[in-house]
Amino acid sequence: MPDRHVSAHEGMSARKSMHNANALKIGLFGSNCSSGRAVTSVPERWSGSWPDNLRLARMADEAGIDFLLPIGRWKGYGGDTDYQGATLETVTWACGLLASTRRITIFGTVHAPLFNPIIAAKEFVTADQIGEGRFGLNLVVGWNEDEFDMFGVKQRDHESRYEFGQEWLDVIKRIWSQDESFDFSGSYLSLKGVRANPKPYGGSRPLIMNAGSSPTGRAFAIRNCDAFFMQASRVSLEETAQRVQTVKDEAKKDDREIDVYTVGVVTCRPTQKEADDYYRHSIIDNADWSAVDGILAKKNITRDTVSAEEFAKHRSQYANGMGGLPLVGDADKVAGQLADLSRAGLRGIAVSMVNYADELPFFRDEVLPRLERLGVRVAAGSTADA
Ligand SMILES: Cc1cc2nc3c(=O)[nH]c(=O)nc-3n(C[C@H](O)[C@H](O)[C@H](O)COP(=O)(O)O)c2cc1C
Q1: pTM of structure
Q2: Which of 219, 245, 277, 369 is found 20 to 30 A from 382 (Cα to Cα)?
């Protein structure tokens, strides 16, 4: 049973701060999937099994890691390793982990078109009650066509996906907040006499995030979400700061405020050379290139559709965390890079590692204390003033 706790009066600001005073939030991304986010064949790659997830979540919770973000993926990408071929469903995964942790925020990643909104709203409330206010929702409207085929669900065109997502989320927010029964009549959803109890924990609602990269996806996030995930620039920190500012400015125009997060891939070792060597070993020499090419083909990126140079660039980016910012180095370097991202205006980062549970202890012991000294994090267990 969790023993921390969000008191009933703690509202959205406490949830947005993930119940602590860390300026830079750090989460682990993708551990519910086999191989995590590293398209590699090295034998130590992440299993994604339940015992490993449980061990990792408890370790992360103790270490003061702020959140866990799973990937909503329903079938493997194939290749020699069947990359992400074994995945734990994210809301049930979150429920198990929330019951076994005390402080950490845990997201479920949910494809709106695949979940009836009433069932989804009640699942989220159940998870939130179990975690006493630590459940978050990553809303996705769909990405990979073949996954939808498996469900017999036709993927809508891009704009309509987000229109549907809007109705779906509107219904869920009403279920969470409204005591009286209501009817809902939209272009996609038509529901009668909707009523559901209990409500989310403590009189507020779960954090909501989205990671759409199109203008429509971004506008959706600004309109509806507490957190937006975007790609950090691989070119310069200034460019990242500019991207963050653009999102914040767009939000301001709509009278909204949104926290901006990004995604990274950490290879942190005692020396820069060891980090570089392991990166080369796992992500280049032993990449599962057959899986990488399959992932790219789904996005219509092939040797026939783009230049050789562009193809090579995409290949190397996708082998490493499917596009996250590489953070490769000793503890000083990785901590410095993370602190810089915080200074660029980012509220947090979701990182992955080849084997999360093997690599987290070094990150916890060496990188997190440096981030405290750099002023972007506080010691594990400190609570927010919020
Ligand atoms: C941090 C992050 C997490 C995401 N998680 C998932 C996921 O688990 N499942 C999924 O189908 N799509 C996921 N996506 C894809 C996005 O939801 C979105 O569909 C994609 O970025 C394309 O943007 P668009 O929908 O605006 O075109 C994720 C993207 C990012 C950057």
Answers
A1: 0.95
A2: 245
336: amino acid identity, one letter:
G
Strands of 13-104 (E only): list them. Answer: 25-29, 67-69
pLDDT, the chain, mean: 94
| Euclidean distance between CA atoms 205 and 282, whole angstroms | 40
Mean pLDDT confidence for 231-237: 94
Among candidates 200, 198, 174, 4, which has minimal Cα distance to 100? 4
141 C-alpha to ligand 1 centroid (Å)? 8
- Measure 48 CA to ligand 1 centroid, in angstroms: 20
Distances (CA, A) of 171 to 15, 41, 120, 204: 21, 43, 10, 16
Ligand 1 pocket check for 217: Cβ under 6 Å: yes
The closest-lying atom of ligand 1 relative to the alpha carbon of residue 220 is 26
| Ligand 1 neighbourhood includes 140 CB (under 6 angstroms) | yes
Q: Which residues pair with 267 in a beta bridge?
A: 328
Convert the pLDDT of each residue in 117-154 to its tens digit.
999 999 999 999 999 999 999 999 988 778 899 999 99
β-partners of residue 194 are 182
For the stretch 96-106, pLDDT in tens is 999 999 999 99
Ligand 1 centroid, distance to 212 Cα (angstroms): 6
- Give the contacts of 272 (CB within 8 A, at least 6 positions apart): 329, 330, 333
Kindly report the three-state secondary structure assignment for every residue of 234-270. CCCHHHHHHHHHHHHHHHHHCCCCCEEEEEEEEEECC
Residue nearest to atom 27 of ligand 1 (CA): 214
